[in-house]
Amino acid sequence: MGKSKKRKDGSSNSTDNNPLLTAQQNYLKSLPSTIKADFFSSKLTPEERAKVWEEQADLGESLVNSYSWATPDDRLLKVFQHFAPIVEVGCGANAYWARWMHDVGGVDVVAFDVSLEEGGKIAAGSGDGGKSKKKKNKGGSDANNNGRGGLIIRQGGPEVLSSDDEIRESNRALFLCYPDEEEYRPSPDNEEGEDMDDEAKTASMAAACLDHYTGDTVIHVGELYGDTVSLDQAPWGRSSSNEFQERLAGEYHCILKMKLENNWLHVRDTLSVWKRSETCCMVFEEEGDQEEEEDGSADEVHYKHIPSDEVLPTDLAAPCVAHLLKNNNKALVKRTKGNEGSVAGEERKRKKKKTTSESKPSPNADSVIPGSAW
């Protein structure tokens, strides 16, 4: 990335450090507003749509191969700075996001990819169309980047999250950008790849990351469940597997979701932040069921605890029905203001009781509760 001016906080002016954003913005601004608003509508003729699609596909493929699948913007810097340090798996040959957040925002990031030469690029003859334009990876080797001012780019896959002591113990937030846009095959010398046939070795890299990750925070960029407008890729979108998304929603809870400022006409990428959830196991046993008791079997139900200050708002409305929420807005504001004091009070109580609570044994997860779960 090009030279840039330094800000007072030591980070760089992002103008010269985000050529992907500049190129994408220039193209999207060149399109009439009616094209952008009604691209998949019957208001456009098939010929109009095909012309724009071909233009966008040619430019998009070139930018993916040269930079990244998704486009970062200045608003996102605060997120990475807040949750730093970062470890990225699947950074691609260009390591675009890692370089951007480090060069522009001064973020401490370690980035990995199993292929530092071709990772993340569109292969020739793929469903995305076109030929892959090879680009020499600048500074992509371990030797050139190891320890360079908070930016490290190394070869490796999901297993480094557990096998690398420094990564595992540093409690870095895990960053995944389009982690499953291509097939992931565990290395034969890894435990994941032992005694597996070729079909079994094809898996979700994002899900494999959750197998190895021991930290608390996952940052995901791409489409998630229900976001995509593609019927062929619905409902999970084009960025990460259903296996990963199901585990992410089950083992973590979302605390932040924001739309990327620049998306291609057919894409609905977002940045979301997920925090590992505290879980509670409740064991129920029917009264008088002696046979079940002797077998040691019971009805186990698992729930996760989400602190009140980590709960996303539920009330959402499209502009066409936003008026249906207006009557609730005043009450919502009043409740929010009232809750601020109670949440702050709860936080003070938690901090005050932290020392004593840590010394107490956790509730026995195997305690049997009379009755049945509902």
List keywords for this structure.
7-stranded mixed sheet, alpha/beta, 13 helices, 374 residues, 36% helix, 2 domains, globular, 3-stranded mixed sheet, 10 strands, Rossmann fold
Task: Give the structure's gist in a few sentences.
The protein is α/β, with parallel strands linked by helices and 374 residues long.
Q: What's the CATH class of the largest domain, please? A: Alpha Beta
- What topology, given as strand order, has the largest sheet? 3-2-1-4-5-7-6
Radius of gyration: 24 Å
Number of strand segments: 10
Number of helices: 13
Overall tally of domains: 2
The overall pLDDT, averaged over residues, is: 79
Instruction: Quote the beta fraction.
Output: 15-25%
- Estimated helix fraction: 25-40%
* Separation, N- and C-terminal Cα atoms: 57 Å
CATH topology of the largest domain: Rossmann fold
Order of helices and strands: HHHHEHEHEHHEHHEHEEEHEHE
Main beta sheet:
7 strands, mixed
Shape from CA axes?
globular
Helix-strand makeup class: alpha/beta
CATH architecture field of the largest domain: 3-Layer(aba) Sandwich
| Unreliable runs | 7-11, 125-148, 353-363
What does this structure look like?
The protein is an alpha/beta fold and 374 residues long. It has two domains: 14-276, 3-Layer(aba) Sandwich (Rossmann fold), CATH 3.40.50; 279-374, no CATH class. The chain has 13 helices and ten strands. The chain has helices spanning 19-30, 33-37, 46-66, 77-83, 96-105, 142-145, 160-163, 165-169, 198-201, 205-212, 242-251, 290-295, 323-359, and strands spanning 86-89, 109-113, 151-155, 173-177, 217-222, 252-259, 270-276, 278-285, 299-305, 368-370. The longest helix is centred in the last third of the chain and has 37 residues, at 323-359. The radius of gyration is 24 Å and the shape is globular. This is Methyltransferase domain-containing protein.
